[in-house]
């Protein structure tokens, strides 16, 4: 049977389909329907069946494996190599959370700052409602739920002006003086000559210390398959989602497989973690299996970075029989001791907890260590870790392979001698003082008489422009905590990450921010190094850090692996030197901008901050009282446990320490 169709989608309908449609038409409840309407209805049903049949033949049924391998259109590849087409997050804190200290059944619950903030907000709302019932026309408007903020949005990136020099034209201080005497010029020439001689001597020392550059030249590798890696390692790389080696990975892996010492540097987000983990896993596949031994030690400066490295290493080695152990502070000590007794192949640790285990854990030693890796090595080589590192290096065999990596890695020979490197290969992919190529650096000038407006400027930026996926860095833990309270009172969803939190709270804060459960993360420099959180749009520096390397690490949390990112820094009058260094760090093609926050917006939010200051003080006082009460109850429980289990407690051998807290504080004061 044939018929004409206006859309010309089809001309012939099979007899079976025609019979089905006729039967459906007979069963219709609308008996008064005209023949023309019936015909149109039948044609619509024929079209629908035909389209379904066509779709079935055109798109075959997908199996589960096809879904897993489906390309994510939202992914951005790095133009300089690397990237990930796999899972959204290459790491998690599953292992670290499983090792958290178990809460005692009768323990006092910790103070929940979010609950205190919410209670204070509800009290304020109730007071406002009561006040509004007495006065209908409130001139000041609602403080906490200010809907008119959304009416004056300036958009992401708006309000910034391109400039090569940020506010340097109206600098009142002159860089040079006209009345400079001839004698002063002669002295300057002499000092320049001495500086040149010192630089030449230093270069000669470096040439003698590092391996010749020709030894560092390797074959250009466009894929991991050309590096002669074993199949389990390639499967692990595919599982994490690495599709192509970055430059630091392509240069490091072949040399590390030869067992040479390495001093490597590359910008943040360039894949340095995989650069040292892949050759380690490849070498461990051929280890003797007769006796278990700890052959690899990876040191990290912070607990969170160590947990991240441990997670990435475990996923890359997921198809091998290599065992891993995480040893950091804040986690269950007994659990770590039990795992170390089994002699794991790889130990990822922070220096303090590692020395604790070396001194006090029976059966654990570093005399079988074949590879020592230091992630964020420049931080580890600073004075704060110098003595601890010396203790660890003494405990490791001299014949080991040593690898140092950092985004701001130094080639200072005096510092590297501490690690007893043996003619190391110097692999510096980028300049050590260079920001990422796709980072847009913005600066907000805070004049000397406007220092009190910093918090208002920050709130204005976060309420008007940068509303999600933003990390805010502070110099102190107290400032980060107070700003978290302020954001909570303003209705902004924020978390905090600093040293005053428990390990459980720190891990939870990172995961909540990573999973988009909070929009803002108030952090200290604890979160500045190594942490890889995809999708961070903006990094805001509430204060310019004292060291330029720390600035690079902070802004390196965004614009990672070839993605775009933005940093906004509040710059005071005392930060001019750091500002000039930041401008110089910009690569060719990257942008440096001056962001101007409208004065009206600053004044508006300054009034809000001033009104909320008494509430912030009340919350801090309430939190302090609850903490004191909790500490008193903990001391009471501790005394009861000592009385109850005194025999077991005093029968244990006394733990020894490399340095007590008191000695550490004294050493810190003397170093200043």
From TrEMBL:
From the UniProt record, list the reaction(s) this protein catalyses: ATP + H2O = ADP + phosphate + H(+)
The family database entries (InterPro entries) matched by this protein are listed as:
DEAD/DEAH_box_helicase_dom, DEAD_box_RNA_helicase, Helicase_ATP-bd, Helicase_C-like, P-loop_NTPase, RNA-helicase_DEAD-box_CS, RNA_helicase_DEAD_Q_motif
SUPFAM superfamilies xrefs:
P-loop containing nucleoside triphosphate hydrolases (SSF52540)
Residues annotated as transmembrane: none
- Molecular-function GO terms, alphabetical: ATP binding; hydrolase activity; RNA binding; RNA helicase activity
Classification via Pfam families: DEAD, Helicase_C
UniProt keyword Ion transport, yes or no: no
Q: Where is the Helicase C-terminal domain?
A: 460-610
Protein name according to UniProt: ATP-dependent RNA helicase DRS1
Organism source for this protein?
Phascolomyces articulosus
Q: Please spell out the taxonomic lineage of the organism that makes this protein.
A: Eukaryota, Fungi, Fungi incertae sedis, Mucoromycota, Mucoromycotina
